[in-house]
Design goal:
- Strand 2 and strand 3 form a beta hairpin.
- The chain is globular and about 40 Å long.
- Helix 1 runs parallel beside helix 3.
- By secondary structure, it is α/β, with parallel strands linked by helices.
Length: 247
């Protein structure tokens, strides 16, 4: 069970949004690379990065900030936002990313995702962002009629490394992870699922250690970490203890 600290990039700065609204951004650090280094120093073992501008515009906008992050941390980094082609995927992996997250393109062109999985085994994750159980695309600006579970099932057996499932209605508002829908999705597929959206307090960390959550790969935390609602040392110790007991 991995706790992924999040760095969301908007105009080169580390921000958090509420409910996916770009005009609701709160700037937490003007130096994303320093933030990445800080997370590593705190003991985190992975980093989740999103190019928010890229998600809306369909191309990398915060590339310089991402490259600075890669230079600042030795932790594996997964990146999503605006990555839409095989060449784009390859270019980012060549720069040192551990995983590329494909979201909008997973809806628009699922065959490209499957091709990417074959070409870059273990390096491709799918981001499924849902509002009311339906998948949203283009930086959450557009809704579809596709159910989250239906999209996930399309990639079963394709070699997807993980599914990052975000409940948009909870993102950035500290109401707690939607455990019911996240675990229901995890029950539908063999692909590891990462919970995202709403992680609010140590209560969510404790919930991550429960037996039924063991089938998840982990959860992503943003605002709760930045606001000090989660103590990194305590959270990581709880998860490490749970891993030890599961062995």
């Amino acid at each position: 069970m991995i706790l992924f600290p999040a760095i969301d990039l908007k105009d080169g700065e580390c921000v958090r949004l509420k409910l996916g609204e770009m005009d609701s951004a709160t700037v937490y650090n003007t130096d994303p690379a320093a933030q990445a280094a800080s997370f590593e120093e705190q003991g985190f073992e992975w980093l989740h990065v999103v190019d928010l501008n890229g998600a809306f515009e369909g191309k990398s906008i915060n590339g310089e900030a991402v490259q600075a992050i890669l230079k600042a941390t030795g932790n594996p980094v997964q990146l999503g936002g605006g990555i839409r082609t095989l060449d784009h995927i390859e270019a980012w992996l060549d720069k040192g990313l551990a995983r590329v997250i494909l979201g909008t393109i997973a809806v628009r062109d699922p065959d490209l995702v499957k091709d990417a999985c074959r070409k870059f085994p273990g390096k491709i994750a799918v981001g499924i962002d849902a509002r009311g159980g339906k998948v949203a695309v283009e930086g959450w600006a557009e809704a579809s009629e596709l159910a989250a579970a239906e999209l996930a099932e399309r990639f079963e057996g394709a070699g997807v490394a993980a599914i990052i499932y975000t409940d948009i209605d909870r993102d950035g508002v500290l109401t707690g992870i939607n455990w019911e829908s996240t675990l229901a999705l995890a029950d539908k597929v063999a692909i590891p699922v990462i919970a995202s959206g709403g992680l609010a307090s140590m209560a969510d960390i404790v919930r991550m250690t429960m037996p039924d959550a063991a089938r998840l790969e982990g959860a992503i935390s943003g605002r709760a970490l930045y606001d000090g609602r989660i103590d990194p040392k305590e959270a990581l110790a709880l998860l490490a203890q749970a891993r030890g007991q599961a062995k």
